[in-house]
């Protein structure tokens, strides 16, 4: 089933699309609107020229603030015998090796020189460049390129990209949930097409969006929300097709007790048929949230609770153990390390993430009244919510 | 039952996971008249399993009990018969997110191995995606195909018994994502590129050794891949414990009544609810290298 050229449209940027701009490790979610100035990494430009181009295209920001698709980079041939030194024993770091002044560089920028050309000028005007080792020269060029290049990549939004963006830009908005922890939540939670998921999150809608992406428009999601109304800014950034929103429902937590007691009528339709999967990631104390919402789960269903801190999850673990109804309880956190991979220069990055939050995961099981003569621990009879079961997961 | 859809009641032919307690589980193929031995006694499939709800408690012949769970790819990973070293859930979760897998994704994978990652991929790409998985060992390829059928996911996957480094994945221009877990992934990079859609896609290579990573990164760069990034992830488990810490007795600040009086030591202690790390933990599984194939 080869793809044909004319079926490209779904891979091309359209006006009104939600996209993510990327430069290096910096991401920003924006909406494509013609003739609207966008700011990204201290640069102002218009996104008009992105419309019609394929997602994943890299653009140069040229003077005037317009985007120009970048020609495929020709791989720098390392066969060029560059003049280089063997070590840095004679190189003095006195801050005087670069002959161009700040003003000179500004002039070059105003003249419309491209980033690559500015870097070339810096190399030519550096007295120590040719004494550096080849590795040091490469590192120098990479550093200058990062500073002076004007490229912007336009990416299709995805959980991967948005999770990295939020964690890098505004971790406070997502309770410092790191992207690998989010990845674990989605997998341990068995989020898949056709699921009926209950989500309680205060992560600007990132977790909700991630759940919806993994459901692909199939099944249903009920977003429990505290306060006045559900926050969904993050969900918008995913740019889901409109029919995805048909699967999204909301429910205010102030009605949870009434629903459990059976004294609530109107909104009950939303979450009556056995909710299958539970995802919690909020700034609220996870214990009451989990103990309250777990009552909606059928037996043999996974649940996953995120907390920025460990102790509240210890409490959850303890209470669940006492109450019963869950097995395979695990309190975990994820450790992640990035690497620089270059010939003879491979090593872990110098800075790594200190922490990404904690997860409590488990699987529900049926609870029943204590049988006479049972030798295994104590299982207080838990209230079982009467569910109208349907067989579609 | 299927690995991509929940069902409520256990039926003949299902795979169920018997939970025995404390991370002790075993998979079971449910069959009329069959029996399964456990340390708590015998489970009779016809009486104890078929027609019961997933998640219920089953009492075994000796009086002890177990839980019967609905299979998931995560439970399968912990219980499947190993034919090769497998990928575990932590790596699988990150691969899934970094490759941007979702319903409808078309994925190419090699080697299939024991099918641990395969099941997780199938769960994520169902119901409209497809997995093309390549395994050069004939028996492993056959075993995997058999398992996919038994687990009711056969319609979502094509198993090919060939060498991906020489013959590729068997499809071109269709994949949103490619995954490599083979000894020499750099030899398959060009095939990965060909298997992927013209408009771009994501690739991942998993290698235990850093030398393999270096060669693969070089091959990816040579083939024009972008956003090349290598990382590793590990899971730290925290064992919740109640611990009792005795308090030191520094004695009374009043002088003793008589020199021969020995103060009665107090046995005061404090109860703490905390976690401890396990004695050992998984320190390394493999390096994950991701990259994006740019649109042509």
TrEMBL record, chain A:
Positions of region (Disordered): 67-95
Compositional bias per record (Basic and acidic residues), positions renumbered to this chain: 74-95
GO cellular component: nucleus; tRNA (m1A) methyltransferase complex
Highest taxon above the source species: Eukaryota
UniProt keyword Ubl conjugation, yes or no: no
An individual GO BP term: tRNA methylation
Protein name: tRNA (adenine(58)-N(1))-methyltransferase non-catalytic subunit TRM6
Cellular compartment(s): Nucleus
Matches recorded under PANTHER family: TRANSLATION INITIATION FACTOR EIF3-RELATED, TRNA (ADENINE(58)-N(1))-METHYLTRANSFERASE NON-CATALYTIC SUBUNIT TRM6
Keyword Nucleus: yes
Family the entry assigns: Belongs to the TRM6/GCD10 family.
Key words of the record: Nucleus, tRNA processing
TrEMBL record, chain B:
Enzyme Commission code(s) on record: 2.1.1.220
Domain tRNA (adenine(58)-N(1))-methyltransferase catalytic subunit TRM61 C-terminal: 64-293
PROSITE patterns: SAM_TRM61 (PS51620)
Protein origin, superkingdom: Eukaryota
Predominant place of localization: nucleus
Reactions catalysed, as given in the entry: an adenosine in mRNA + S-adenosyl-L-methionine = an N(1)-methyladenosine in mRNA + S-adenosyl-L-homocysteine + H(+); adenosine(58) in tRNA + S-adenosyl-L-methionine = N(1)-methyladenosine(58) in tRNA + S-adenosyl-L-homocysteine + H(+)
EC class: transferase
Localization terms from the record: Nucleus
Keywords annotated in UniProt: Acetylation, Methyltransferase, Nucleus, S-adenosyl-L-methionine, Transferase, tRNA processing
Classification via Gene3D superfamilies: 3.10.330.20, Vaccinia Virus protein VP39
GO cellular component annotations of the record: nucleus; tRNA (m1A) methyltransferase complex
One Pfam family cited in the UniProt record for this chain: GCD14
Presence of the UniProt keyword Secreted in the record: no
GO biological process, one term: tRNA methylation
GO molecular function: tRNA (adenine(58)-N1)-methyltransferase activity
Chain positions recorded as S-adenosyl-L-methionine binding sites: 114-117, 135, 163, 181
Role summary: Catalytic subunit of tRNA (adenine-N(1)-)-methyltransferase, which catalyzes the formation of N(1)-methyladenine at position 58 (m1A58) in initiator methionyl-tRNA. Catalytic subunit of mRNA N(1)-methyltransferase complex, which mediates methylation of adenosine residues at the N(1) position of a small subset of mRNAs: N(1) methylation takes place in tRNA T-loop-like structures of mRNAs and is only present at low stoichiometries.
Annotated PANTHER family: TRNA (ADENINE(58)-N(1))-METHYLTRANSFERASE, TRNA (ADENINE(58)-N(1))-METHYLTRANSFERASE CATALYTIC SUBUNIT TRMT61A
Oligomeric form and interacting partners: Heterotetramer; composed of two copies of TRMT6 and two copies of TRMT61A.
UniProt similarity note: Belongs to the class I-like SAM-binding methyltransferase superfamily. TRM61 family.
Descriptive protein name: tRNA (adenine(58)-N(1))-methyltransferase catalytic subunit TRMT61A
């Amino acid at each position: 089933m080869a793809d044909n050229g004319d079926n490209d449209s779904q891979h091309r940027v359209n006006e009104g699309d939600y996209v993510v701009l990327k430069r290096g490790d910096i991401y920003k979610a924006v909406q494509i609107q013609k003739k609207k100035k966008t700011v990204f990494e201290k640069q102002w430009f218009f996104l008009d020229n992105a419309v019609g181009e394929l997602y994943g295209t890299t653009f140069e920001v040229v003077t005037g603030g317009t985007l120009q698709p970048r020609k495929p980079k020709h791989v720098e041939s390392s066969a060029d015998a560059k003049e280089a030194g063997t070590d840095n024993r004679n190189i003095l770091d006195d801050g005087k090796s670069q002959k161009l002044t700040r003003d000179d560089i500004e002039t070059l920028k105003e003249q419309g020189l491209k980033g690559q050309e500015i870097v070339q000028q810096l190399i030519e005007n550096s007295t120590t460049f040719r004494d550096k080792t080849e590795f040091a020269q490469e590192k120098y060029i990479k550093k200058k390129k990062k500073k002076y290049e004007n490229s912007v990549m336009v990416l299709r939004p995805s959980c991967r990209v948005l999770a990295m963006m939020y964690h890098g830009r505004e971790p406070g908005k997502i309770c410092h949930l790191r992207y690998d922890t989010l990845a674990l939540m989605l997998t341990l939670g068995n989020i898949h097409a056709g699921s009926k998921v209950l989500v309680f999150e205060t992560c600007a809608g990132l977790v909700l969006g991630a759940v919806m992406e993994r459901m692909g428009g199939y099944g249903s999601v009920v977003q429990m929300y505290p306060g006045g109304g559900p926050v969904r800014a993050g969900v918008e950034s995913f740019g889901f097709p409109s029919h995805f929103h048909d699967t999204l429902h909301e429910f205010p937590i102030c009605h949870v007790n009434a629903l459990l007691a059976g004294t609530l009528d109107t909104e009950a339709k939303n979450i009556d048929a056995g909710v299958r999967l539970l995802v919690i990631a909020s700034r609220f104390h996870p214990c009451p949230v989990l103990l309250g919402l777990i009552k909606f789960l059928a037996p043999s269903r996974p649940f996953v609770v995120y907390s920025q801190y460990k102790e509240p999850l210890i409490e959850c673990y303890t209470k669940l153990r006492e109450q019963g109804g869950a097995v395979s309880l695990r309190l975990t956190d994820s450790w992640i390390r990035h690497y620089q991979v270059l010939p003879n220069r491979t090593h872990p990055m110098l800075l790594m993430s200190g922490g990404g939050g904690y997860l409590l995961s488990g699987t529900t099981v049926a609870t029943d009244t204590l049988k006479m003569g049972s030798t295994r621990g104590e299982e207080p009879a838990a209230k079982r919510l009467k569910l109208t079961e349907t067989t579609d997961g | 039952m299927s690995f991509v859809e929940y069902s409520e009641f256990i039926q003949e032919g299902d795979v169920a996971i018997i939970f025995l307690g404390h991370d002790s589980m075993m998979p079971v193929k449910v069959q009329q008249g069959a029996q399964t031995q456990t340390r708590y006694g015998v489970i009779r499939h016809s009486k104890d399993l078929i027609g019961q709800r997933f998640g219920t408690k089953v009492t075994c012949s000796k009086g002890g009990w177990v839980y019967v769970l609905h299979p998931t790819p995560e439970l399968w990973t912990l219980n499947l018969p190993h034919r090769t070293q497998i990928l575990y859930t932590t790596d699988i979760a990150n691969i899934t997110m970094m490759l941007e897998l979702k319903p409808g994704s078309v994925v190419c994978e090699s080697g299939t191995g024991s099918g641990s990652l395969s099941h997780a991929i199938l769960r994520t790409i169902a119901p409209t995606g497809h997995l093309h998985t390549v395994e050069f060992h004939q028996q492993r390829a056959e075993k995997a195909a058999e398992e996919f059928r038994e687990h009711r996911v056969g319609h979502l996957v094509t198993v090919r018994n060939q060498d991906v480094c020489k013959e590729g994945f068997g499809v071109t221009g269709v994949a949103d994502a490619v995954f490599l877990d083979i000894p020499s992934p750099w030899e398959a990079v060009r095939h990965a590129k060909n298997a992927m859609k013209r408009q771009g896609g994501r690739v991942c290579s998993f290698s235990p050794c850093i030398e393999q990573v270096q060669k693969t990164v070089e091959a990816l760069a040579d083939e024009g891949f972008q956003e090349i990034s290598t990382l590793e992830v590990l899971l730290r488990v925290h064992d919740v414990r109640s611990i009792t810490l005795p308090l030191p007795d520094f004695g009374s600040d009043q002088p003793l009544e008589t020199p021969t009086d020995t103060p009665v030591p107090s046995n005061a202690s404090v109860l703490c609810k905390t976690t401890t790390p396990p004695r050992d933990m998984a320190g390394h599984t493999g390096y994950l290298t991701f990259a994006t194939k740019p649109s042509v």
